Amino acid sequence: MKIAIASGKGGTGKTTVAVNLSLSLQDAQLLDCDVEEPNCNLFLKREMEPITEVTTVIPEILEENCTYCKKCSDFCRFNAIATLPNKIMTFPALCHSCGGCMMVCPEGAIQECEIVTGIIRKSTTKDQTGPELYEGLLDIGQTMASPVIGKVKKYIDPTRTAIIDAPPGTACPVLTTLEDVDYCILVTEPTPFGLHDLKLAVEVARVLNIPHGILINRSGSGDDSVEKYCADEGIEVLMKIPQDTRIARLYSEGIPFVEEMEEWKEKFMQLYISIKDRYGRSEKA
Q: b or e along 113-130 (b: 16 or more beta carbons within 10 Å of the residue's beta carbon)?
C-alpha cells in the first residue's frame, strides 16, 4: 500500500509524521520525495549510498542549420526557447523535455542533450532495523523536481508498505508525488494559516480523486477552525498529535518521538491498520 504524507505548506510536521509512522510499521519503505530539501534522514541518521543519477533531456541548437524561423519558440508553451532575428537562445531551467521543438523544426537544427538534474540515494544494508529509506536530491540550480520525484517512486516495492513524504505546497512536485498513491494523510496545524493551506491541499486530493484524511499536529496550540472545517466538509480527522514539550524536545534533538514514547507506535500502527482496512489493496503490510 502506498500512503503519501502531504501538507498545504511547510512546517506542519509532515516529515515528523512520515518518519514516526514508518518506524511504527514492519518492513516499510520510506521515500523522501521532498527532493529540494530531503530531511527524513535527519531523524533516521542512516548511512546513505547513491544508486543512480537522474537525467533529463533538453534541446541543443545547431545554429549552423537554424534559419530563425521561430517555429520552435512559438511552439514552446514554457518559453524555454527565444528566437531573435539572428540569434536563438535556450533556457534549460524552463524546459519540460517534451521534445516538441525538435518535432516542429523544419531544418533539423535541434538535437537532444542529456543533463544530470539529481541523484537517488538509498540507505545501506548495514542497518537492517526500521524502514528502508530512499531519497531524491535535486541538484543545486535545477528547478524541475518532478523527474527526480518520479525516479524515487520507481523504487517502490509493490509487495511492501510505502510511506511517501511529499514536498510541501500544492504545485507540480506534489502532483507527481501523489500520483497513483492509495491514500493521502494531510498534516496540518490548528491555526488560520494552517486551515488556509489545508483547504488548498484538500482540493488537490479531491481533484486527483485520492482518499484522504487529516492529521492535526500540535493540537491544542491554536483554535478549532480546522476541526470545524473537517466536520463541515465530511473529512475524517485521523489523529491529533498534541502540543507536547517532550515531543518538541525530541524533535529539536533529531529523535523520532516513537523511539522514546512507545505508546505512540501503537497509535501509528492503529492509524495504519484503519487506513489499510478501508483503502488498502491486497499487498502485505
A: eeeebbbbbbbeeeeeeb
- CA–CA distances in Å: residue 202 to residues 77, 135, 181: 28, 25, 15
Name the helix (H) or strand (E) containing 239.
Answer: strand 237-242
Beta bridge partners of 241: 217
pLDDT cut 70: percent of the chain above it: 97
> Residue 3 half-sphere exposure, CB side, CA atoms within 13 Å?
35
Rounded Cα–Cα distance for residues 34 and 224 (Å):
29
Q: What is the pTM of this model?
A: 0.89
Residues 242-260 have a mean pLDDT of 95
212-219: strand order across its sheet: 48-61, 110-123, 132-138, 28-32, 161-165, 2-6, 183-188, 212-219, 237-242
List for the chain the helix, strand, coil content (%; round to 5): 35, 25, 40
Query: Taking a C-beta distance cutoff of 8 angstroms, is the pair 144, 171 a contact?
Result: no
